[in-house]
Every structure is written in structure tokens, then in C-alpha cells.
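assembly run, all chains below
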Amino acid sequence: MPTFFESKELVTPGDLLAEGDYIAGENTYQEDKKIFAERIGLVEYDNRKVRVVALRAFYIPRIGDVVIGMITEVGFNGWEVDINAPYTAILRASDVLERGFRPQKNDLLSILDIGDLVIAKVTAYDRGSNPVIKISEPGLGKISRGQLIKVTPTKIPRIIGRKGSMISMIKRETNCRITLGQNGLIIISGKTREDEQLAIMALRKVEDESHTSGLTDRIAEMIRKEKEGRRKNVQT
Amino acid sequence: MSKPEKLLDKKGLRLDGRKLDELRPIKMEVGVLSNADGSAYLEQGKNKVLAAVYGPKEVHPKHLALADRAILRCRYHMAPFSVEERKSPAPSRREIELSKVIREALEPAVFLEYYPRTAIDVFIEILQADGGTRCAGITTAALALADAGVPMRDLVVACAAGKIEGKLVLDLMDLEDKYGEADVPLAMMPGINAVTLLQMDGSLTLEEFQNAVKMAMEGCKQIYEEQKKALRARYIAIKEAINE
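ok done. output:
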């Protein structure tokens, strides 16, 4: 039962990862007893399971995911929301309005207009129909301030870090509130524009260097250096 | 360009000094367009090709969508300035046919069944043409698809072999294609040993044809290694910059 790469090694589509009694995990496929990579990424061998952590991918909805979306259309009984996925999501008016929805009375445009951003949760999705999302839960709802950035969706787990180590460090060091959408959209809101810029810089660096080790320490160092540089600028 | 007197010189070398089984110098880069979901650029001799991939995304017009799989749409286009005499930018009969041929060469590599009711758009723009652009287009498009994060069975590579002045040669350029005796473009997935495109233009004996196919496959394998290198290059560069 040979494997053909080291763990965490970079692989490209079509690379033969393992042969024999293995199980094909994420971003891999099996043909006969051979397991191949489907995407460019880092290979991981976990006992008999072979998977690839993708470096390039797009977002596919999963039930329970918290996502950030933009309203693209207002209909008679709900909204259509772009959630950075191949499918547009549906947000039902009956879910947003607490006391039952009456088309004659409620004006949907006054609640959410085209272009508004929302934090939402995926409640239903399968291959046959478009995803349904909701915003009626604490922590969800319309976004009123902050900056929006887009990263590769597969890198969200890296941005969170082990038990949230990376994201909590960035939040602490930059004094920003950061909301991560599983779909690769991130909202950053801080007290000053400089704080927000610093957080964005850190997040971009994590995205670019997600496949390297010792990243949390390097990011912390970068933020500290940037802050010092700023203090000096203020003094002079 | 007018017809050269001879396509092979006394030493048996070709017009650009290549040996019979030698590829043109090849250069690839991935992720060159920031507005596309995936992109790649390739130079193969005097060929210059740009490919961009968008999607998967919702299908418009809606009636084209398939309930059980994604559709792959391909556009092969030559820029007006890509050839010596200005080419009309409107898609010609040849370009429409090549778009279809390239789509069918790429389709077996992509896991279309993963994303029903969506479309994946591939745009191939020939910036400068010097023979074998359909092959260069396929090679570039496969890189752009991988860069877009579209799941694939393997990268698709294409390369041509042919016959000039009675000798089998690899990777024909424009003059050799025009004034040679035959041209056999071939696309394949070398990792799983599957051929996705095989065409022939001109005349060859059965034996010559079999040898030409073999030759083209060898060429494909060489380009395949370059493709993989190009995909990895960006990530390896970042890693090395950090280790320094």
C-alpha cells in the first residue's frame, strides 16, 4: 500500500496520491484501487484516508454554514441573495418578519434593499434546488458598517486557525470586529480606518501564505511591526 | 510568409533549427488575470495564448441548464492581430469548430456532475498564432481550469505530430503545417493515460500514423511536466521567500 507524496506536499490535479487499501477524502477521487487528486492543494494522509486541502476552490453551500451575502433581487415573498456560490440563495420573507407575512401590508424593500449585505445561515440545500438562508437568529442579520473583503473560501479554516488561534489573535492585535462567512466573504469593522486596513493586510497575508508553517507567529510579528511603524510616524 | 524552398536543411534540422522530435521552447504562467476565476498564459515558440475560466455559475439563458450536470462552454478566438493578414474579429467557421473540438477535449477531464444547473465558461484568446494553436489552447485552458479550482480527473495536454518532406516531426509550426504532408493533433490526460482529442489532416500510412501518435504522446508528456511546474510555481515561490 504505497503512498506517493509526503504529508502536506503540494499536489496538482491528476497526481496519483496512493494505491491500495485507502479511502478517498475531500478533493480526491478513486479509480480501481488508485486515489488521485482533483484540485491543486496540500495532500494529507490520515491513517487510511487520503485528502487534499484545496488551495484553489469555490464555495458550495452546506447546511448550517454562516455566510455573508448581498441582496440581488427583491421578489413578492422574499429576496434573492448572492452568496458567492454557483447558486443564488433564497431568503424568505416569512422567515424575516416575525409576525407572519402579509404581501399587502409589508413592504419588503424597506426591510432589505438591493445591495444590502446580510449575515445569514444556510438552512436547506441539496443538488436539486437552490439554497435557502435565514437571518432570524442572534448574530445574523443586516450589516450596517465595516469593510468587506473576499478570500478563497477554502482558506477560511486556516484564517480561523486551530481552535480559533489565528482569528482571535488578529482580532486582539487590531481591535477589530471580524465576521467570517464560510463562503469566503469577511466583514471587518474597527474603531479607525487604520485598524481595519491592518486587519485586512493580515488576512490577505494569511490567504497568500496559507500553505506554509509557523504562520500565526509571522502574522503577529507583522502586525506588531506595522503598529510600531505607525507610532513612530505619529511622533515625528 | 512565402513557401520556403526546403523545410529541412542538409543536417536534417528544421526551419527554426529544431531536431525532428524537439518541442518549441515553452513558457507558462498561471493566475495572470485577477478578474477571472482562473487564468493562464502560454508561449510555445511564437504562439501566445491567454485562457480565462469563469464559474461554475448560474446558467444564462436558463433553458441551457442541465438538471444532472454542469455545462462547459468554450470559446476559441483569434485576435485580429494574431496573424500576418488582419483577421476579422467575428468568429469564423474554423473558430466555431475549434471551440467545439476543444470543449470536447476538456469535458472528460472535468467533474461536471458535481455541480448540476451551472455553467463553466472557458475563453481562449490566441494573441499570436504560429501553428498548433488548438493544442496550445487546450494546454492553456486546462491550466486555467485547475487555477479556477474546478475539480478535474487530470490536466489535459495537447501536442501535434506530423510529416514534412517524408519525415515524422513533433510540434509543427505554421509553415510546416501549411507546406508539410500531414498534421496529427492529439490531446490526452497523461496521468490516467486517456486520449481526449485525435485529429488528422493530410495523408499518412497506417504505420506512419501510429508512429505520429506515439510521438505526439511523448510530446504531451513533456508539456505535462511543464504544466505541473507552472501550477506549483506560485506556491513554491511564496514558500521559498519565507524560508529565506
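The domain at 26-243 of chain B is CATH 3.30.230.70 (Ribosomal Protein S5; domain 2).

Helices of chain B lie at 93-106, 133-147, 174-179, 206-243.

not gonna interpret more than that til we talk
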